[in-house]
């Protein structure tokens, strides 16, 4: 949503209430102010427990730990080791151009999480009645799904008949989607599904909302989905 961002935006908070003498709020706030003064950073970040993350790579994994966020597929941008140490090669390049704010987000994205006993009828009904422009299928592992009967082909074909873009993510915290790894995944590719690579499900959801929100067609969104726009996705080396 922020194109050509030339300064850091830092999100932080605390897990221990501010009125407690041992709250983590003070340290998180002080470190965030230090990082916000760093000219090398030109992106949106999250800072907790002496660690700075790229925000669009993060997921929340705990409500009780002092380190509530994890970045499964991308290392921290900075860590506190006596002093805050920025990992320069990981940072986004300096922008060229004027800041552009794009506030329009298309909210019509359907998310379906698959399970061992998920009834096909319920999924088909969701696809038939949705007003969404895209469907995210949260599958297993590298993009695998129930293989009984024609479960997945029916679902994909129903979505295609309604001109919905179908995107496959994984329910695993670690590991990326590779639809070429298994026979069913290859079948999904043939039917027109798109793998989300190593984007988190949250990043995939917001990216779809953003791309549709700026008025792109489904085919154009498909082409941009696996391209790196703000550091939210990276290439994964194929297995030998």
Automatic annotation (TrEMBL):
Q: PROSITE patterns given for it?
A: ASN_GLN_ASE_3 (PS51732)
One of its GO biological process terms is: aspartate family amino acid metabolic process
InterPro entries, per database record:
Asp/glu_Ase-like_sf (IPR036152), Asparaginase/glutaminase-like (IPR006034), Asparaginase_C (IPR040919), L-asparaginase_C (IPR027473), L-asparaginase_N (IPR027474), L-asparaginase_N_sf (IPR037152)
Q: Which residues form the L-asparaginase N-terminal domain?
A: 1-83
- The EC number of this protein is 3.5.1.1
User: What GO molecular functions are on record for this protein?
Assistant: asparaginase activity
Looking at the record, the residues that make up the Asparaginase/glutaminase C-terminal domain are 108-224
Record SMART domains: Asparaginase
Query: Top EC class per UniProt?
Result: hydrolase
Instruction: Tell me what this protein is called.
Output: asparaginase
Q: Which organism is it from?
A: Strigomonas culicis
The lineage is:
Eukaryota, Discoba, Euglenozoa, Kinetoplastea, Metakinetoplastina
